[in-house]
Amino acid sequence: MKVVKFGGSSLASAVQLIKTLQIIKDDPKRKFVVVSAPGKRDESDVKVTDLLIEYGNAFIEKQPLEEIQNKIIQRFTEITDELEIQDVQKTISENILALADLEEEDPARIMDAFKASGENNNAILYASFLKKNGLNASYVNPKDAGIIVTNEPGNAMILPEAYDEIVKLRDREGISVIPGFFGYTKDGKICTFSRGGSDITGSIIAAGVMADLYENFTDVDAIFSAHPGIVRQPREVKELTFREMRELSYSGFGVFHDEALFPVFRADIPVIIKNTNNPEAPGTKISTTRKVNGLPVVGIAGDRGFCSLYLSKYLMNREVGFGRRVLNILEDFNINFEHMPSGIDDISVIFRENQLAPEDEDKLLTRLKEELALDEITIKHDLAMLAIVGEGMKSAIGVAARATQSFADADINLEMISQGNSEVTMLFCIEERYLNRGIRAIYDAYFK
Ligand SMILES: Nc1ncnc2c1ncn2[C@@H]1O[C@H](COP(=O)(O)OP(=O)(O)O)[C@@H](O)[C@H]1O
Ligand SMILES: N[C@@H](CC(=O)OP(=O)(O)O)C(=O)O
Questions:
Q1: Cα(257) to centroid of ligand 1, in Å?
Q2: Is the shortest distance between the CB of 208 and ligand 2 below 6 Å?
Q3: ipTM score assigned to the predicted complex
Q4: pTM strictly above 0.90
Q5: How sure is the predictor about 448, in pLDDT bands with cuts at 50, 70 and 90?
Q6: Domains identified in the chain and CATH numbers
């Protein structure tokens, strides 16, 4: 059996839903369908999830709700009218309006209940659409599916015991349509995954039902070696390992959520990324191993929004526990660091800017300077991390040399270089404003 996930772009309009119907009909093994909320119909459009966030904010701030409610209902009505499944529209409209009766104080929980209703109502809609077209399909609420998650609004994680329930879905008759993006806490509260989290639901269901394949349908023929908005017509990647995909997703490939790989990786279930608009294209396969085709690098990813703390102290190398004390102070500020390159007498800590509230910056620097008796401490903002990824890098010589030369030729100064022991990724920290130029330079160096 196969688990299929349709992303927001695949369900943005009636025309898109009709394409997905053919995909489901083409293969009777497609027994589990995980759906996102309707996404963007074109570049200028707004995703239903973003409309629901606007609705949730208006509700929290006790502002008028009618306009935004109508906008959301209208998005669904356009689809149900065109697909002639108007009977289900009444339920969806009522569900959207009922959000305004929510009795909940915590803004984060309110927001999750609002966000989740995009996927939930779309699953109700989608099951009705499949039935109308002669398929034996039914909607399954994530609670009934057994998707029990941690109590972290907007950032939930699946609990291990959830799999004991999810496996029971195998016995269901017909096609099960499951909303993506959210689960329930042990005490029955809705909690969403982080943004893009329907990919995670698909992976959880695939691992839970022990599927043969997890098919993730999106709007591109394959995963490309670089973001198609940055490099013109980048090369398609036929195969990736889980490790390569994890590194690329984490470093900025928005096409597949980085946390979504974990369940399928552990269960050793291959993933295929395919295009709803061109399902004949072979797509990109992600699995444990792949043939290394001679090229050391498979992809180049980049992400903005980092900052770097530079700490220096003469004879730091002699001080036992120095690193631990730095990290303890960071922990007090709830900062999760990404990288920590070090020299003899200095250490840098790179973390995402959103980890540190601007009003806390001075406090953090003062505490570090005083408690660690530093000679110097500085913080640099507006940095980007650029990652070069490929299993083939392990056995290739000169990968770093070629990259650093390309940065030099493109007139880009390197703030930091780091290569993990796995040798699957090499990371470069550069100024944010040079990120796209850097990606293009590195792409040309490895693929042209
Ligand atoms: N390296 C990449 N390869 C393919 N697509 C990428 C890459 N990096 C970013 N993307 C973007 O990811 C988009 C698909 O992801 P997403 O918007 O989450 O789709 P969905 O609506 O199917 O969930 C593509 O349209 C593309 O612009
Ligand atoms: N709709 C949610 C979850 C999701 O996965 O959506 P998409 O498949 O459109 O990336 C979001 O926008 O975050």
A1: 10
A2: no
A3: 0.97
A4: yes
A5: confident
A6: 2-287 (3.40.1160.10), 299-447 (3.30.2130.10)
